[in-house]
Structure formats: structure tokens, C-alpha cells
Glutathione S-transferase
Amino acid sequence: MAPKLYYFDGRRGDAEAIRMLFKDTGIAYEDVGVSEETFKQMDAAGDLLFGQLPMVDFDGLKLVEQPAILEHIAQMADKAGKGTNKYLGENENERSTARSLCSAACDLRRESLAMRKEGSNDAKRKFKADVLPVWFAALDKLAVASNDEDKGLGAGVHFTFGDMAIFEAVNAITVALNLSVIRPYPNLKEWHDKAVHRAAIEVHIQGRDDAPW
Amino acid sequence: MAPKLYYFDGRRGDAEAIRMLFKDTGIAYEDVGVSEETFKQMDAAGDLLFGQLPMVDFDGLKLVEQPAILEHIAQMADKAGKGTNKYLGENENERSTARSLCSAACDLRRESLAMRKEGSNDAKRKFKADVLPVWFAALDKLAVASNDEDKGLGAGVHFTFGDMAIFEAVNAITVALNLSVIRPYPNLKEWHDKAVHRAAIEVHIQGRDDAPW
């Protein structure tokens, strides 16, 4: 049975990187839009470990939390030999680094979500002045090593589940604030642009509906 | 070379579950207290991926983010056959569940840290009324399966790195608010009490200095 991704209907949010990884790995999945009412029913039925979405049902294993879900997909992909990529990295150290990126992506997403929810120009200005430079400068450094034959951030040569998490977080910020915010970070921009043009990602981004995120 | 844990001097914070897992697995490590000045130097030198502590230097691999660090330690322990426990769980599904617990522990810790920073009785009241019941009720359900021969939350029989992350987050809340807050959740309380009495954890908790967290 194909994995089923449950998330709030019409929203990208914490589910979007999961969708992208399913597409990039070529693993068929079902995208289930959840209404507020269904959400309450699922929670009451004990389907959601901590009352949160996204949840992915992997043949009975009902997994929550984006990092755990992404790594589970990466593992399925590598085991099935899908594509030429190694989504878990080449070895345990690269896999640990991917996990670190994944957690960091959660932090970055949380900060950008707060800016988006607040919604004011002032919130955007503050985010651009205080939050974005710290993250993008760090990611720009990591991207230096990635821009020859490498595709993954840091020392790894593979585009891992951690890269996908960071990519979606960064891409969401460029959508919210304009692509120009990434220009002062040329290495990050090059890495981001390469990821945007991964075939399955490009098709996904062009085909997705508008969303309030 | 023993792994080196870098964290703010005299603080428990996001390093405490890492310390506990090092102790529980019996892996020797060095606890390096970092002053504000040293922190700035380390950040400027590029030692901290996203300008954050804790960082653990595993023989040159400088890893940040608690979930990534905990799983890396679990992996070292299982590979070295330290103790009779399987810190990664019995199979990939249990390992994915442990990751999910680990991410959830970050969320819970963030909420309890906000309460602690705010510090007022009002903040404590709000946390007790709104945040704590949601988390503790969910964990209490998970603990039901754990209280026979089981030691890990959920379906797993092992006390994994995910359990350690949740245990520290819950234990920190009982220290901040009083152990009585856990009493309405008998399964969680039983699980928590068993974890407190794991030999290495007990020694660690009794031996640690007071800290503002």
C-alpha cells in the first residue's frame, strides 16, 4: 500500500518538504487533505501521536514529525535503489549531518512561519535584518563545498533528506520575500537554483496550487 | 579520542539529554563548559554550524542539534555493544519512532523553556493549564505499552535515544514545577520513575550541580 500523507487541506506547511522528497525519490504516495473536522476526529481516535500533522501512514506505522518522516522516506528510497542518489548520504557521518540539517530546517521554518503569521511589513523587515542573514550566511558557507560536482550541503556529495528539508525552508522564504533576498549569498543561491531544477522538484513546484502556506 | 560536548558553562539546557545518554550508554566523553567569550570565538572560527550550542566533536565530526547528536551516540553504543540495551530500537520502524519522539522532545522543551524564561506565576499557570495536559496525556497513552517488561515509550521494548530525549524534557518540567504535576498521568509517572532509577541516570541526577537550566 502506498504511504498516505495527511496534512491540512490546501496547505504546504510542514508537509511540503515531505511531498518534495516523495517526488524526488519517485516513491508513489497519496496526498490526503484533512479538514479541521477530520483533524479533530483523527486526534480523538489516537491517530496523531502529539495531536499534530503532518502524519504519514507507512502501511500501519503512523509517523509524525517532519525529520522522522523524511528519513524514513530516504531509507525506503535507498533500500529500493530508487534513482542514482543516496538520500541517506554515503556513510554514518553524512547521515548524522543530514539529521542535523533536518533539525535546523525545523528551527528556520518556525522562525519564518512566525514572520509569515505576523504578516506585517515590520515583521518582514525584522526577519530580513535579524534572522535571515544569520541562517543564509551559515548555509552559504556550507554550500561552498557543494558547487562543483557536489549536490549536498557540507561535505557530502549526495542530496540527502537533510538537503531537502533545508531547500524547502529556504525556497519558502524566497517565495514569501522575493528571490532577491538570496542574491547576497552566491553559493547558497547556486545550490538553491540547482535544487529548484532537479527534474521532479521543478515539475512539483510548477504544478502546485497557490497556498497561504 | 573521547567525544567532547561543548555547552554553556553551568547550564543543563539542550545538552542535558546528551549528557544522560553518554552516561547511560557508558561512553566516556568530556564535558566542556563554554563561556560567552569562547562561544563567540568558536562561532567566528566556524566551529558551530548555525551559531548554536550544544556541539559535540566526535573525532573531527562537529555535530550540532540535539536529535542528530543523540542518534549518533546511540549508534556508537549499539555498534560497540555497550550494555544490554538497543538504543536505536529493534528495527527501522522503532528507530523511526525514536526519531519522532526526539523531535517531539524538542518541541516540548521549547515550550517549557519559554515558560521558564518568562518565569512568572502566570506563565507557570498557563503552561500547567494549556501545554502540559496535551503533552502528558499523549505520553501517558504511549507509556501504557511500556509498563510491563517494556522500557521504551510506544511499541518498542527498548529505552531508545528518543526515550532519553522525552525523559529529560519531562524530568525538567517536574523539577521546574514539582513532581506532583505528573501524578494525574499514572502510566507516564511509572515510566518516568523507572527511567529516573536507571543506575547511570540516578547517579548523574544526584551528582549534578544546581543550575538555572
Notes: Helices of chain A lie at 16-25, 36-44, 66-80, 92-118, 121-144, 161-177, 186-196, 199-207. The radius of gyration of chain A is 17 Å. The mean pLDDT of chain A is 91. The interface with chain B takes residues 46, 49-51, 61, 63-68, 71-72, 75, 92-93, 96-97, 99-100, 102-104, 106-107, 134-135, 138, 141-142 of chain A (CB under 8 Å).
